[in-house]
Amino acid sequence: MASFSTAQPLSLPRHPTFSNPNQPTANNDRSSHTISLIDRCSNLRQLKQIHAQMVRTGLFSDPYSASKLFAISALSHFASLDYACKVFDQIPQPNSFTWNTLIRAYASGPDPLRSISVFLDMVSDSRFGPNKYTFPFLIKAAAEVSSLSLGQSLHGMAVKSAVGCDVFVANSLIHCYFSCGDLDSACKVFTTIQEKDVVSWNSMITGFVQKGSPDKALELFKKMESEDVKASHVTMVGVLSACAKTRNLEFGRRVCSYIEENRVNVNLTLANAMLDMYTKCGSIEDAKRLFDKMEERDNVTWTTMLDGYAILEDYEAAREVLNSMPKKDIVAWNALISAYEQNGKPNEALLVFHELQLQKNIKLNQITLVSTLSACAQVGALELGRWIHSYIKKHGIRLNFYVTSALIHMYSKCGDLEKAREVFSSVEKRDVFVWSAMIGGLAMHGCGNEALDMFYKMQEANVKPNGVTFTNVFCACSHSGLVDEAELLFKEMESSYGIVPQEKHYACIVDVLGRSGYLEKAVKFIEAMPIPPSASVWGALLGACKIHANLSLAERACTRLLELEPRNDGAHVLLSNIYAKSGKWESVSELRKHMRVTGLKKEPGCSSIEIDGTIHEFLSGDNEHPMCEKVYGKLNEVVESLKANGYEPEMSQVLQIIDEEEMKEQSLNLHSEKLAICYGLISTEAPKAIRVIKNLRVCGDCHSVAKLISQLYDREIIVRDRYRFHHFRNGQCSCNDFW
DNA sequence: GTAGGGTTAG
User: Which portions of the sequence form the region Disordered (predicted)?
Assistant: First the structure.
């Protein structure tokens, strides 16, 4: 037998006389020799040599041999679809096998739908119809592009061709229906299979895991066991993934012991699935032990470990994993960015993003952009957010639901509601997250009625609201004083929409009622709650008490809140402010003393402003910023000119015991939002809007000052505080002083 | 001589 290395050209016997496939034995020997060579090809060049030889010897006109060559050209690891098509076109009479091979090659190629056109060609150009081998390829293509209508048509055709009950066809259909999101049809197909095999079960289990029902997957696995179907590797992977998603360490451990006890051969994918289960369930020790034992590791292994440390907020270890990776890919970078972004560390996320941009040969993908946009939204990095938006346009990145929602969210949270609206209108299809993002954007900008309109339009578009949608709608009602509307929707939430209200929804309604002054009603609402009122419910009531200066109720709400969260600094500060507002300075000082003794610190006021892509932060009373002298100079100038126009500082906003009037005024001027606005006045030119983000609620005096600056300096000022946006223009604020 | 199900980042 000839042997060849990949580097050497093949040396083939020449058979110039071979022209008839039905020729005597000597030639048949040679043909089987050639076919064995085809099987041992390791690159395209060798295959082309054999192809040429077959044409020369006439062996290519033998349908079996030609099909063999074609199959390798279309399916091997060095396959080339272009070349395979040329081979196919040379085959005089392709048989059913040849057609199926071409369909298969296209179905698993970059454009799976092309397999459908090949299928149509087969039906019209040949005497062959689809058989039980054809359908799994076609159905796989339908699954790949998630086309339910295509899947359904193929299902119908398979039934007509009498192969609808074939277990391979049925299993492909289950997978296809899951990937199109039609879980009911998948289940129906499953129940109709007479002799379910392990793949039937696996398709169901992994389908449920991937579509967000890991509990159902575990249920099915138990049923599978009770029916004595032997689990395979793929079953284990699916079940471990379900354990990871449900954080079921106990069951996950049992699966791992089963694997060990039964000496199941643990391949890389299975080991990775075990690793993922351990990390997601928070057992980094088990994960590390397994990781150290693994002989082979791929990027999934490394990224799973990285994420494991990130879950425990051990960012140093996570970073260490990224650094140790032999070949870092985009998934690993994304894992670190999103870990920071989702744990309230948006600045760190942005630093990693900037570092990623310096890497060569790593292309950003949709997930990178979604995580980074979310970080931009948190810190108010509008310029970077805009840059990402133009990157998306420039690189023709598709606006899927995730990217669309992230853009809407970023623009809304960075204060550019118009851009958020533009993105929303520019897309044809919107899912519940896209609609909810837009409703949330309108809510934080105080466009309550428009948010409600959106909520109804969403339903006209046949998109069902979820819990997040309702939170955003209630938030919109709250900022616009739409009490009746919120109450009505809250009543309908469960009865008409089938969504059980969660604690955050209760807190929203308390906020709606309280803000509008219906304090007693809010109390009654809390008393009637079917679940124990959470800290956020009492916090909402307390906030309302501050607005409406209800001291006794505030004390009650605060007591309950502190029972649940004894170290809630915001509650202490709110109560102290309420005391101050009512002139109860003794209580103020008692409370402040209590905070001092217990070491509880008020979160310092902090405002930030983005100038040329850099975020500048100002703390209240800041003297850290390199420009702070100039900023204070500007502030004095501004206050003087405002005073000349009738402004009087609101001393009632000074919520500490300060006797001297002058000191009180100074303390007001230390507020971080004033510093940031003045920095904006120094560093930017009209008509550019000044955009400031504050971590706490904006104070009343700062609110008045911002209104006056917007008029006297003819500048638009946009402030995002902890709860909402304030657009200051021509001496007015978009919140109509209701916040 | 042909087939179906698998792990990481939103």
Answer: 1-32
- Asked whether residue A531 falls in the same domain as residue A597, the answer is yes
d(CA A166, CA A133): 10
Last residue of a domain, one of A580, A602, A624: A602
* Strand B within 7 A of A175 CB: yes
Are A566 and A634 in the same domain?
Answer: no
A314 vs A585 pLDDT, higher one:
A314
Residue found under tokens 């519940």: A432
Report yes or no: A373 and A391 within 8 Å, Cβ to Cβ: no
The answer to whether residue A487 sits within a structural domain is: no
C-alpha to C-alpha distance for A306 and A331, rounded to whole angstroms: 11
Who contacts A374 (Cβ-Cβ below 8 Å, separation ≥6)?
A341, A346, A406, A409, A410
A607 touches strand B (CB under 7 A): no
Residues A35/A73, Cβ–Cβ less than 8 Å: no
A111, part of any domain: no
Whether A591 and A626 map to the same domain: the answer is no
Q: Are A2 and A36 in contact (CB under 8 A)?
A: no
The number of distinct structural domains making up chain A is 2
Number of Cβ within 10 Å of residue A530's Cβ equals 7
pTM for this prediction? 0.87
Q: Which domain holds residue A595?
A: 502-602
For A297-337, write each residue's pLDDT tens digit: 999 999 999 999 999 999 999 999 999 999 999 999 999 99
Nearest alpha-carbon partner for A172 in A143, A207, A201:
A143
Residue type, A541: L
- Kindly report, residue by residue over A622-657, the tens digit of the pLDDT: 788 888 888 888 888 888 888 888 888 877 666 565
Band the pLDDT of A571: cuts 50, 70, 90: confident
A291, two tokens: 């990781």
Q: Which of A585, A602, A619 is the last residue of a domain?
A: A602
Which 205-234 residues of chain A approach strand B with CB closer than 7 Å?
A: 206, 209-210, 232-234
Note whether A703 and A721 are same-domain residues: yes
Residues A613 and A549 in one domain: no
Distance from C-alpha of A681 to C-alpha of A635, rounded to nearest angstrom: 10
Distance, Å, A735 CA → B4 C1': 59
Contacting residues 281-320/A vs strand B (CB within 7 A): 298-300, 303-304, 307
Ranges of beta strands (E only) in A382-440 are none
Q: Are residues A610 and A597 in the same domain?
A: no
Phi-psi region of A146 (alpha: psi -120 to 50; beta: other; left: phi over 0): left
Q: How far is the CA of A64 from the C1' of B2 (A)?
A: 13
